[in-house]
Amino acid sequence: MGRMADSNRRTTSRRALYNRLRRMVLTLELPPGAALSENELAASLGVSRTPVRESLIMLAQDGLVQIFPKIGSFVSRVDPAQVADAQFLREAVELAALEDLPAELDPGVVAELRDNLEHQRGPELDLEEFFTLDEAFHQGLLRLSGHANAWTTVAAAKGHLDRARRLGLHEHASSAAFADQHTQIFEAVLSGDTDGARTAMRTHLRAVFSDIERIRAHSPQLFASDPGAVPVRRSVAVWE
Amino acid sequence: MGRMADSNRRTTSRRALYNRLRRMVLTLELPPGAALSENELAASLGVSRTPVRESLIMLAQDGLVQIFPKIGSFVSRVDPAQVADAQFLREAVELAALEDLPAELDPGVVAELRDNLEHQRGPELDLEEFFTLDEAFHQGLLRLSGHANAWTTVAAAKGHLDRARRLGLHEHASSAAFADQHTQIFEAVLSGDTDGARTAMRTHLRAVFSDIERIRAHSPQLFASDPGAVPVRRSVAVWE
DNA sequence: CGACAAGTGCTTGTATACAAGTCCTGCCCG
DNA sequence: CGGGCAGGACTTGTATACAAGCACTTGTCG
Predict the structure, then answer these.
(1) Distance between CA A75 and CA B68 in Å, rounded?
(2) Which one of A29, A38, A45, B172 is separated from B186 by 20 to 30 angstroms, measured CA to CA?
(3) Nearest-CA distance from A119 to chain B in Å?
(4) Helix (H) or strand (E) holding A73
(5) Going from the N-terminus, what domains does chain A have, and what CATH number goes with each?
(6) If we measure between CA atoms, which residue out of A222, A208, A224, A211 comes closest to residue A88?
(7) CA of B75 to C1' of D2 (A)
């Protein structure tokens, strides 16, 4: 997350573009490897190259876009190394948060989490909806431990991980299993069983991770083999 | 760390500026709160506004610079909340890494760490030198656990923490005490005493943190009180 | 027929001009 | 003397023009 760089009321078009493109990248609407032409984007969005270009630079800073000078800009492929890093980091942070839980849990957040879990069991659950709930659940746990802001830092480094997870959810909706794991974690937290919560969390996060490995074998073209490799320019390019 | 966004051989002037300004911000050569005029920078560096501006946008994305539209760009003040976040994150990651140490430690890295610690005890130690050694020491520990890359992610979020630490080191050189703590951690790692290493690490990191709190009371103007507050434009501005 | 080379169209990088907003200064008027 | 308002000097935001480089296409020559 860009950590709210400008922070001003007036929304500049660069910022709007950044948010929009970022969402499109994270939701895979812009798939890994997709070419992002500054000219095309500018024309289709009705602005000049400048704000487009600057928003791409911001996304590149997030690691979500790669800019090759004089060649082109591309949605970065999911980098397994970065996914692993983000996974390790996330596990470390979430487990540390569980160790840091106060004796008295914030009842508001607890209620919110309970509500969240109930929704997760909903029968007709859109993948995007589940993803949002999942995100909110984990963030809620961090808020319980008083480290809400740390989540935004983790979220910033989580771009590659999130895209990989989304790929996993797209392929086989295993949301029910994840919902069960969430419930297990939550109940351990409520009963004050820190060790149990940590174990359940570890199990959960590793399940997510192995899901990703499976996906990688299945759709290798979305992953980067050599991070330095330059994508070929769409020659005959089916592309739309 | 910008995670090497372009990754190409040819160094663009934007990238050079980014690296240069970034270093200046992190070393406090550009102190928190300093105004960064695109025009001034461009003129003094002999380039146009474009690369200057774009490098500032990258720094803003890192949270090291704040851009207020139509008002100005400023080196961001050290945000205590972000420092605390980075501290929590760092502790979580480094402790998790200690739990992840392999049975057989890489002898090359071990030798490197031993060498590093020896240098830390050097009599005439520049603050910058100590800081570099400190950084290398912690990174080395992460490499031992096989999570070298996770360090770069942590480093990216560590900007505010690092600047606060540097402030602390500037005020009273307590490097000797830190060197002792480093040695204690290292020896616990070598002897396979995971719990001892974790305890020592926790003690060490918290000592660093309390150092920061002390500095904040001492030099509050370098810290942000209200993160959303807009700096006043230098009116008569002593400024240089 | 094959290989090489100029050409063409794309890309991003940089420079510059202008637009729009903010803040301070100083004049003018009550 | 004090208040208000206009102007100017600064800021960043956006648009546009041109420069430089890469990749493919195509024509030409051996």
Answers:
(1) 28
(2) B172
(3) 30
(4) strand A72-75
(5) 1-77+224-240 (1.10.10.10), 80-220 (1.20.120.530)
(6) A208
(7) 38
Residue B91 with chain A: CB contacts under 8 Å: 96
Residue nearest to nucleotide D20 (CA to C1'): A70
Q: Which nucleotide is nearest to B49 (CA to C1')?
A: C15
pLDDT at B240 over 60: no
Q: Which nucleotide is nearest to A68 (CA to C1')?
A: C12
Q: Given A60, A150, A228, which is nearest B89 (Cβ)?
A: A150
Mean per-residue pLDDT, B209-215: 85
Look at residue B145 and give its three-state secondary structure: coil
Nucleotides in chain D near protein beta carbons (<7 Å) = 10-17, 20-25
Element of type H or E holding B95: helix B80-99
Identify the closest residue of chain B to A152 by CA–CA distance: B85
DSSP A109-165: HHHHHHHHHHHHT-SS--HHHHHHHHHHHHHHHHHHTT-HHHHHHHHHHTHHHHHHH
- Of the candidates B181, B213, B222, B216, the one whose C-alpha atom is nearest the C-alpha of residue B199 is B181
Q: Which residue is nearest to nucleotide C24 (CA to C1')?
A: B235
CA-to-CA distance for A190 and A188, rounded, in angstroms? Answer: 5
pLDDT given for residue A237 in this prediction = 37
Residues 133-192 of A with CB under 7 A from strand C: none
The pLDDT of residue B1 is above 50: no
B58 or B162: whose pLDDT is higher? Answer: B58
Q: Which amino acid is at B99?
A: E
- Report angle CA B206, B197, B136 to the nearest 5 degrees: 70
For the cut 60, the answer to whether the pLDDT of residue B106 exceeds it is: yes
B71 touches strand D (CB under 7 A): yes
From B226, B125, B102, B103, select the one nearest B175 (Cα to Cα). B125
Q: What CA–CA distance (Å, rounded) separates B182 from A107?
A: 41
Q: Which amino acid, residue B74?
A: F
Tell me the pLDDT tens digit for each residue of A19-73. Answer: 999 999 999 999 999 999 999 999 999 999 999 999 999 999 999 999 999 999 9
Integer distance in angstroms from CA A232 to C1' D27?
Answer: 25
* Number of C-beta neighbours around residue B134 at 10 A: 19
B97 contact residues in A (CB cutoff 8 A): 92
Residues of chain B with Cβ-Cβ distance to A22 below 8 Å are: none
Find the mean pLDDT for residues A11-17. Answer: 95
Residues from chain A contacting residue B153 (CB–CB below 8 Å): 85-86, 89, 157
